[in-house]
Amino acid sequence: MQRFDALVVGAGPAGSTAAYRLAAAGASVLLVDKARFPRDKPCGGGLTTRAVRMLPFSVEPVVEDIVHTFELRLGYGKSFERTSEQPLCLMTQRRRLDHFLARKAQEAGADFRDGVRVELGEELRVDGEPVLADVIVGADGANGITSRVAGAELGYGVALEGNAPLDRRYRGKLVLELGVVPGGYGWVFPKGDHANFGVGGWESEGPRLREHLRRLCEQHGVDAAELTDLRGYRLPFRRASSTVASTKLLLVGDAAGLVDPLSGDGMYEAFVSAKLAAEAVLSGDLDAYAQRVLAELGPLHAASWTAKYALDRFPRLTFAIARAPLAWSVIARLVRGELKDPSAARGLSRAPLRALDALGRLAAA
Ligand SMILES: Cc1cc2nc3c(=O)[nH]c(=O)nc-3n(C[C@H](O)[C@H](O)[C@H](O)COP(=O)(O)OP(=O)(O)OC[C@H]3O[C@@H](n4cnc5c(N)ncnc54)[C@H](O)[C@@H]3O)c2cc1C
Question: In this predicted structure, what is the pLDDT of residue 350?
């Protein structure tokens, strides 16, 4: 029977980077995915600089655009732009990014098997063959099996996205349409030869997502009926009491429900949790993992929930706060990973954050 130090279930951003870090440190790793690679994953494919900083290698070969400008819009009306000299976001396609990350794990020494079936019963089985592993890293995303095995309690948002030919006006720019989808927003992301149009919000918005997407496209002069690769998917948010680990099983990324509640981004969290899981496995201190993940991401996500409630209930006021001159330096530093979470901001830039916090508390009351 084959024996591994770690079995990583799922080769998305979380699983592949966990496998890379473990294999690069000399651990024997089996990385498995039920899909055949290259495979796609419904996602905007936007890697914030904050996320990129967490990667142990460059992803330059799969970057299709570099975003320096954010255009924030409200209710398909008012808008403003802010620009950063340093990049804010790298645009990728998940089909390419995830294949690249899985190959990196393989090159580092992980045994990567795609298109396989995993059973996590009394005995671990991969395609029917029993395997032994000291630890399982659960990286199988929002619809996987490991979060159920660990007993995680997750809530969900939903999102729908598709692609249209690129209008050059979106080059180097990311457009966020606020106040148009309850519990979320609409976006336009530039890629190599196309733009990605998407909408996401509360789970209850599921039946209305197509209509939200049609409206977004219409506002940008695109025929929604012509979108290609139209796909919907769930965004998992961990409940405050939810576990991120059980005996010999560490949940990472979406399997742990670590998506940012405000932005709906999850790749930063996937990379952070993968790094912490790999460190826990390598040090032999699995018990430290849960506490470290919550310490690292808890304050950021708490602030994101507050801002999400504020945006949902008071979109105009929240938009006005985001537009305030002092707010941009905080937003840009958060996106670039120079600020760990809003509470780390100092000086005058705290003023818009205090206002947002007060609004959010009022909205949640
Ligand atoms: C529409 C949409 C847009 C988004 N846009 C962005 C964005 O622009 N930027 C951002 O940072 N985040 C974005 N997100 C969130 C982001 O996609 C996720 O947070 C991210 O993919 C999480 O990575 P992961 O590795 O945890 O899981 P996943 O990427 O979901 O990977 C899980 C892997 O596990 C495999 N798997 C599942 N079940 C099994 C099983 N039983 N056995 C073996 N393998 C299994 C799957 O095939 C998959 O390869 C978006 C999400 C949605 C839905």
Answer: 86
Any idea how long the chain is?
Answer: 365
Ligand 1 in reach of 113 Cβ (< 6 A): no
Look up residue 232 and give its two tokens: 């919907």
Q: 185 CB less than 6 Å from ligand 1?
A: no
pLDDT in tens, 38-82: 999 999 999 999 999 999 999 999 999 999 999 999 999 999 999
144 lines ligand 1 (CB under 6 A): yes
At 100-123, the pLDDT tens digits run 999 999 999 999 999 999 999 889
Q: Does the beta carbon of 13 lie inside 6 Å of ligand 1?
A: yes
| Residues in contact with 43: Cβ distance below 8 Å, sequence separation at least 6, in sequence order | 94, 161, 233
Distance in Å, CA 165 to ligand 1 centroid:
24
CA 102 to chain centre: 17
From residue 317, alpha-carbon distances to 307, 310, 321, 355 in Å are 11, 8, 6, 9
CA–CA separation, 94 vs 44, rounded Å?
Answer: 8
Q: What is the whole-number distance in angstroms between the Cα of residue 139 and the centre of ligand 1?
A: 9
* CA quadruple 212, 307, 327, 87: dihedral sign: negative
> How far apart (Å, rounded) are the C-alpha atoms in residues 247 and 287?
9
Q: Which atom of ligand 1 is nearest to the CA of 116?
A: 43
On whether the pTM is more than 0.90, the answer is yes
- Residue range 239-283, pLDDT digits in tens: 988 999 999 999 999 999 999 999 999 999 999 999 999 999 999
Pocket test for ligand 1, best of 125, 237, 267, 297 (most atoms within 8 A of CB): 267
Tell me the pLDDT tens digit for each residue of 159-187. Answer: 999 999 999 999 999 999 999 999 999 99
Token pair in block for residue 316:
């105009």
Cβ of 270 below 6 Å from ligand 1:
yes
CA of 267 to the centre of ligand 1 (A): 8
Interatomic CA distance for residues 248 and 186, integer angstroms: 39
Confirm or reject: Cβ of 257 under 6 Å from ligand 1.
Answer: no
Alpha carbon distance 300, 334 (integer Å): 10
Q: How far is CA 203 from the centre of its chain?
A: 17
Which residues are 29's β-sheet partners?
Answer: 6
